[in-house]
Amino acid sequence: MPFDMALVSAALVALIAGATRGFSGFGGALIFVPLVSAVFGPKVAAPTLLVIDTALTLPFVASALRACIWRQVAPLAVGAVVAVPFGVMVLRHVDALTLRWALAGLSVVLLGILVSGWRHSGRHGLPTTLAIGALAGTLGGAAQMSGPPVVAYWLGSGQPSSLVRANLFGFFALVTLASGTAYVANGLMTLEVGRLSLVLGPAYALGLYAGSRAFRGASDRHFRLAAYWIIACAAFLSLPLFDGLFGR
Description:
One of its GO terms (cellular component) is plasma membrane. This is Probable membrane transporter protein. It is a multi-pass membrane protein. By secondary structure, the protein is mostly helical. It contains eleven helices and no strands. The longest helix has 25 residues, at 161-185. The radius of gyration is 16 Å and the shape is globular.
């Protein structure tokens, strides 16, 4: 593992990703996985984030599980859990560069949907809800990026930011269990993942703390604007064009 400027850059990415996750309840993977993948590859970056995020967000999950609305979370989570193994298969077999371009493109599409002002009634049928969950699960297994489809779904319903954030933490808790099981089964939890988790974990923890404190004073409008910027910046910076910033 290269202990050089690339690792310092990865620690900075972890700090920003943690702050984003702490503030909005999602977005950490949108920043962490594409940029850290520029140096260590998706097969290391995605499991590393799962280890770090799982260990450090437990206090947030405990309170979110009490605040989220399970009738909204459960159908999406079921679809996601079923699809996670397919996402892991994508991670294992799809070319890393191709995967990163695809993830960046998807982020742009979802951002366009949000910015367009699209709204739904929040009463989609079960098949549609399961399909959205399945898309999220596929992205979660492939790159720990299950958030964007679910964020677009819940923000599109016009729900308050506090509820969206709580639902996201509850949703991610269930999807993380499925992803972690699939990663172990496919041999992706390596010594390199463990070492990188120990190095980047403190920066991510500091970001989580700062982001959660910032959320306390945020309005619904600020939350939505932050969500848009998170997706936009992640899509832009995740492009392989920026690999040179990480020493590659």
